[in-house]
Design brief:
- The complex is a heterodimer.
- Chain A folds into 3 domains: 156 residues, Aconitase, domain 3; 120 residues, Aconitase, Domain 2; 133 residues, Aconitase, domain 3, CATH 3.30.499.
- Chain A is 33% helix and 17% strand.
- In chain A, strand 1 and strand 2 form a beta hairpin.
- The radius of gyration of chain A is 21 Å and the shape is globular.
- By secondary structure, chain B is an alpha/beta fold.
- Chain B has one domain: Aconitase, domain 4, CATH 3.20.19.10.
- The interface between A and B is large, with 80 and 62 residues.
- The structure holds iron/sulfur cluster (SF4).
């Protein structure tokens, strides 16, 4: 029997087996940002250690960067302090930093792929749970905590347990108005927010094979919301084409040799899997969350579930979610009023996301009273979007067009919900307080659905807007 | 960074009820804007401890009955959400030395072990029994004995579960992975040399 990609990559990167039964896993690419690294650098210095492989380590700033006024020193002294800590550490240890003004700054999971740092067959880690995004390239990529960031800096290794592999095939054809975001929300809804614990998700099937790299990134990004720390897609021609010519990707003769190797690490056709799931892509609708975890999601044309339609064990979570969200079982989600519309994040802040959203917004106006913002995922996304004139479409409709960063995905910068505001968001988490107000409410959906909600002032079925 | 063995935890309990308590609840993101972990304990559960005007809402972390407690008792899927280590750090700095629950989110659990904080699980009914007992009599001592996988309280003794790898690291004092990983320097080098993407394909 053949092997899935995960096992091939895992075996290749295993340094040794640890007494604990974990593998000591070599990490090919370590990405860092300003929020989860300062304590790790501190502890590295305190224990007299150094960075083992600075050339395999790259940094950017994203979580706390303001997306409007970016003059230094930053207006927020705490943010400025974090900036300086990262600058000092990168300089001290010789780590390349894609900083503000470099033209390469952006959300770590947007920047890595677009610079060609992310490649098939690599192991990739970052102190951020959405590192699974990089799995879109057939890399094994996962988020780690700050203690592990220190391990990584010091040894370029992690102590890890090998996950089992669940293959998820999405068959058929996605209906119009349905995107990768809807697919992953549908998967999480179906398998549960804990369904992936202990698993790596290998996404495949005709729908995924037809996906662009950006769509695959959206899909892999939210694996962690389904409990799977790792999610990946086998590399194929789409992957190889995407990488061709990117700055850190192999060039010339090395590129051809790389493609041959990349092909060899894809899952074998007769690979064995711990579990297999098949979903009909044709049955997926534009999907919206109604609760406070990403599994509490329904098609926009469905009604919010009643208790009797939910598993017994989900009742208490649903009850709390209804109270917090002020939504009611049995009511439609379509028509729910919103106050804020946010397009951005490492889930959906890429060029194709902005293009699709702009198609919906074009010639329309943001509804009165709605605060709407677009935050490109990186400098490069922003540049390309502006070259296409997308910013003009958004601005003409009444959206704010911002500088790149995580922004309202987790609201560590000044972009925040206020009070009980309801936000239609293209980000990945709808936890209580996630968007900066302890009482703020988040409805997750695809960028086109956010665009539709922005112009209607309420949750709307984007399929009705594409005429 | 001296390593210590964690064999048992003796202390009073504190109960935080609820399934799927996520890391944003344990430590809201705005408190992660620091370059050290110092002082995080003050913000543990911040948004559920106080109302918007800053008045305490009667959360267990503010209750004098639980002051000084070191064993946290929780329900299902505790610590779900992000990989932020700030969550176990905040709890640890508040004084939590062990967590007993129905289940934990994977990354949160790993982060706890990496700080030498055992997370142990027990069936739902047992956890409820323990919660009721601790709420009724918060002064009673709890004793978590990892080697025998038991937790003693006034109402009896529960058997608890913890994955072997985590137990091994706690008992052997190898939960701080950095030193352990660095022992294999030569093997790290050899591994790097067989990776096509590091050797130019
Ligand atoms: S956009 Fe959101 S999820 Fe992505 S890296 Fe930033 S904070 Fe994390």
């Amino acid at each position: 029997m053949g092997k899935p990609l995960l096992d091939k990559v895992w075996d290749l990167h295993t340094v040794r087996e640890l007494p604990s039964g974990h593998a000591q896993l070599f990490i090919g690419l370590h990405l860092i940002h300003e929020v989860t690294s300062p304590q790790a650098f501190q502890s590295l210095r305190e224990s007299g250690l150094t960075v083992l492989a600075p050339e395999q380590t790259f940094a950017t700033v994203d979580h706390i960067v303001p997306t409007d006024l970016r003059a230094r020193p930053l207006a927020d002294p705490l943010a400025e302090q974090m900036f300086q800590a990262l600058e000092r550490s990168c300089e001290e240890f010789g780590i390349e930093l894609f900083h503000l003004g470099s033209g390469d700054q952006g959300i770590v999971h947007v920047v890595g792929p677009e610079l060609g740092l992310t490649q098939p067959g690599m192991t990739i880690a970052c102190g951020d749970s959405h590192t699974s995004t990089h799995g879109a390239f057939g890399a094994i990529a996962f988020g780690v905590g700050t203690t592990q960031v220190r391990d990584l800096l010091a040894s370029q290794c992690l102590a890890m347990q090998r996950p089992r592999v669940r293959r998820i095939r999405v068959t058929g054809e996605l209906p119009r108005g349905v995107y990768a975001k809807d697919v992953i929300l549908h998967i999480i809804r179906t398998l549960g927010v804990k369904g992936g614990v202990g698993f790596a998700y290998e996404y495949g099937g005709p729908v995924v094979e037809r996906f662009s790299m950006e769509e695959r990134m959206t899909l892999c990004n939210m694996s962690i919301e389904g409990g799977a720390r790792v999610g990946y897609v086998n590399p194929d021609e789409t992957t190889f084409e995407y990488l061709r010519g990117r700055r850190f990707a192999p060039h010339d003769g090395a590129y051809d040799r790389a493609v041959a190797w990349w092909k060899s690490i894809a899952s074998d056709p007769d690979a064995g899997y711990a579990d297999q799931v098949e979903l009909d892509g044709g049955a997926i609708a534009p999907t919206v969350t109604w609760g406070t975890n990403p599994g509490q999601a329904i098609g926009v044309d469905e009604r919010i579930p009643r208790f009797e339609e939910l598993e017994e064990e989900d009742h208490s979570a649903a009850e709390q979610a209804f109270a917090y969200m002020d939504l009611h079982p049995g009511e439609p989600i379509e028509g729910t009023r919103i106050d804020v519309a946010f397009i951005g994040s490492c889930t959906n802040g890429r060029l194709s996301d902005l293009r699709e959203a702009a198609r919906v917004v074009h010639g329309r106006r943001v509804a009165p009273g709605v605060r709407a913002l677009v935050v490109p995922g990186s400098d490069s996304v922003k540049r390309e979007a502006e070259a296409e004139g997308l910013h003009e479409v958004f601005v003409a409709a009444g959206f704010q067009w911002r500088e790149p960063g995580c922004s309202m995905c987790l609201a560590m910068n000044p972009d925040k919900l206020v009070g009980r505001e309801v936000c239609a968001s293209s980000s990945n988490r709808n936890f209580r307080g996630r968007q900066g107000s302890p009482m703020g409410r988040t409805l997750l959906m695809s960028p086109v659905m956010v665009a539709a909600a922005a112009v209607e002032g309420r949750v709307a079925d984007v399929r009705k807007l594409f005429s | 960074m001296g390593l210590e063995r964690v064999e048992s935890v003796l202390g009073r309990g504190i109960v935080v009820r609820g399934d799927n308590i996520d890391t944003d609840t344990i430590i809201p993101a705005r408190f992660m804007k620091t370059v050290t972990f110092d002082g995080l304990e003050e913000h543990a559960f911040a948004d559920v401890r106080r109302d918007p005007e800053g008045r305490p809402k009667g959360h267990p972390f503010d209750s004098p009955r639980f002051a000084g407690a070191s064993i946290l008792v929780v329900n299902r899927n505790f610590g779900c959400g992000s990989s932020r280590e700030h969550a176990p750090q905040a709890l640890g700095r508040w004084g939590i030395r062990a967590i007993v629950g129905e289940s934990f989110a994977e990354i949160f659990f790993g982060n706890c072990i990496a700080l030498g904080i055992p997370g142990v699980t027990a069936p739902r009914d047992d956890v409820y029994r323990l919660m009721d007992a601790v709420e009724l009599d918060p002064d009673q001592p709890l004793e978590l004995d990892l080697a025998t996988r038991t937790l003693r309280f006034r109402g009896g003794t529960l058997s608890i579960e913890i994955p072997d790898w985590a137990l091994g690291q706690l008992l052997e004092g190898t939960w701080d992975a950095t030193r352990t990983l660095l022992v294999a320097r030569d093997a790290i080098e050899e591994t790097a040399l067989r990776l096509p993407y590091l050797t130019g394909f």
